[in-house]
Structure formats: C-alpha cells, structure tokens
Amino acid sequence: MVTQRTREQIEAFAAVEGRSFQQTGQPPIVGSPNMLNFVCSNWHQSRYFDVDFSPAIVKHGLPEGKRVSLVGKPALVVRGLPEIQMPVASITYIMGKDAKGDWWMVWQLQ
After folding, report:
1. Distance CA 7, CA 101 (A)
2. What is the chain written as a DSSP string?
3. Which of 13, 30, 99, 103 is found 20 to 30 A from 65 (Cα to Cα)?
4. What is the pTM of this model?
5. What is the mean pLDDT of the chain?
6. d(C-alpha 63, C-alpha 71), whole Å
7. How far apart are CA 108 and CA 37, in angstroms?
8. What is the arrangement of strands in the sheet containing 91-97, beginning at the earlier edge strand?
9. Cα dihedral angle (23, 24, 30, 31), rounded to 10 degrees?
C-alpha cells in the first residue's frame, strides 16, 4: 500500500474538520449513530515503570524488603490528562506492568 488516501479525500476531510472546530471546538465524529467506538492507548510502550528516578532520591522511604518496586522506580503511574468537552466513552489506557508483574490499566466507561 503506497497511498492511503487521495489528495481530494485529504482536502475534503480537512474542510470537514475545520468546520467542526469552528462550530464546536472539537474534531468531527464520523460514523453511524449506533456505532460503538472503542479507543485503546498503549502507554506501556513508553516504559513508565522502567524510568530510573534514583538520582533524584534524597532520602529512602521504606526499607528494601517492604517496597513493591526497586529504589528509584515508580510503584504507581497515574493518568493525568486535561478534560475535553467532547463526551468520550469506552477508552482504555494500558499504563504498563509494575515490578510485581501486575498490569495497570485505566478504563473510562460512560
């Protein structure tokens, strides 16, 4: 597959998108009224649980035997995104796998 869309298709969608942003401030939703939209974002690819913050440690908290993660590695990653005006349902964020091997996911179901 060399070309995914024609120039005319790109220009037509850009026009629809521009109108939608002018009228609503949001991108257009295209599809049938009874469709189910499901969005999945794989944040695990960013390896947030593998980031090493140990150079920033000033004082150790829990003793090594009581901690759930290695020193300087995140024990928890929390999704923090700005709220959008467009109602969106059925979204999942795969946050990643922690030091214990547990998967962390955030689901937004409305």
Report:
1. 46
2. ---SS-HHHHHHHHHHHHHHHHHHSS----S-TT----EEEEGGGG-GGG---GGG-SS--S-GGG-SS-TTS-S---------SS---SEEEEEEE-TTS-EEEEEE--
3. 103
4. 0.55
5. 83
6. 10
7. 12
8. 39-42, 91-97, 103-108
9. -110
Q: How far apart are CA 24 and CA 34, in angstroms?
A: 21
Strands 39-42 and 91-97, sheet pairing: parallel
Once rounded to an integer, what is the mean pLDDT over residues 86-105?
Answer: 83
Q: What are 69-88's pLDDT values in tens digits?
A: 888 888 888 877 666 665 66
* Residue in this structure with the two tokens 């796998």, named with its chain if needed: 97
CA torsion 15-16-19-24 (nearest 10°) is -150
Domain residue limits, the chain: 1-28, 31-107
For residue 23, the one-letter residue type is Q
Contact 35, 29 (CB under 8 A): no
